[in-house]
Amino acid sequence: MIVIAVISMKGGVGKTSATANIAAALAKQLGQGAVGVIDLDPQNSLRLHFGQSNAVTTGLSSQSVQGVGWREVMYQSEYGVDCVPYGDVTESGREAFEALLEEQPDFVYQQILHAGLSEKRVVLIDTPPGPSVYLRQATNCADLAIAVLLADGGSYATIPAMEAWLAEVQAERPDFQSLYLFNQVDGMNTLGLDVIEVVRSHLGKRVIKNVIHSDEAVAEALAFQQPVSIYAPHSQSTRDLDNIAKQLALYLAQ
Ligand SMILES: Nc1ncnc2c1ncn2[C@@H]1O[C@H](COP(=O)(O)OP(=O)(O)OP(=O)(O)O)[C@@H](O)[C@H]1O
Ligand SMILES: [Mg+2]
Q1: Ligand 1 pocket member 131 (CB < 6 A)
Q2: Does ligand 1 lie within 6 Å of residue 42's CB atom?
Q3: What's the 171 CA to ligand 1 centre distance in angstroms?
Q4: For ligand 1, what atom is nearest to the CA of residue 8?
Q5: Burial of 130 (0-12, 13-18, 19+ CB in 10 A)
Q6: Residue 197 is inside which H or E element, if any?
Q7: pLDDT at 53
């Protein structure tokens, strides 16, 4: 099993969409049941990409507080990806869960093992933006972090803070690796393309070769509660995601 944490310092850059759509693209290559996703964000929106009914309110947060494992809240989507949703939670329930995460730095990793997720080839974890107890749990158990960036000055400015965070993790765990992924790229925006070039010149191969272009199909797919590769198989973003999944599959095979 390889654990991939999808992270960013800024909100709204496309972590959740990227987590869901990369997972679905990887499942196409690795096969049904080979990929799992975990939603470590109280927004509880990852499940929406996999068609889970709104009527289902349970998830890993309430299970954890009650001392119950995650297996029974794992949702087997029809897209080859198994999803563990965060679940609906009250304010006090969220605080109790976060206190538990503070106390047990390897809690998420232990749950992954107990829920049978370790039988998967790949597990992706979606996180909220910026430093948090969730980001710490995700990076504590990740083999690889994918930091999502927009091709703009705002995301560029977050790279030093992200690098400092990643360096801390790597100091404790030398095998930990990290890559950057540009999302919502507009091929006509020269300033944006310049930002990508500057970041590539500094970070080299740590920037994933393919970007995810800005594509209405990504937002539309969410409205239909499907991965974009199912909703719009011939779209630009599906081509991008297939290429990214191929690169990741090669990386995972190393
Ligand atoms: N490649 C893309 N092309 C067009 N729209 C996109 C793309 N990626 C994401 N979006 C849209 O951008 C918005 C934010 O995406 P998303 O929720 O995945 O970001 P996030 O980083 O998870 O946000 P948060 O920090 O709140 O968790 C959504 O409306 C999504 O549909
Ligand atoms: Mg999100």
Answers
A1: no
A2: no
A3: 31
A4: 21
A5: middle
A6: helix 190-203
A7: 84
Looking at domain 2-253, its CATH architecture is: 3-Layer(aba) Sandwich (3.40)
CA dist 242 and 254 (Å) reads 19
Task: Decide whether any atom of ligand 1 lies within 6 Å of the 217 Cβ.
Answer: no
pTM of the model: 0.97
**Total count of residues recorded for the chain:** 254
Quick: pLDDT tens for 117-176.
Answer: 999 999 999 999 999 999 999 999 999 999 999 999 999 999 999 999 999 999 999 999
- Say how many C-beta atoms besides its own lie within 10 A of residue 163's C-beta: 16
pLDDT, tens only, 245-254? 999 988 877 7
Which of 17, 38, 126, 212 is the best mutation target for the ligand 1 pocket, counting ligand atoms within 8 Å of the beta carbon and taking the most?
17
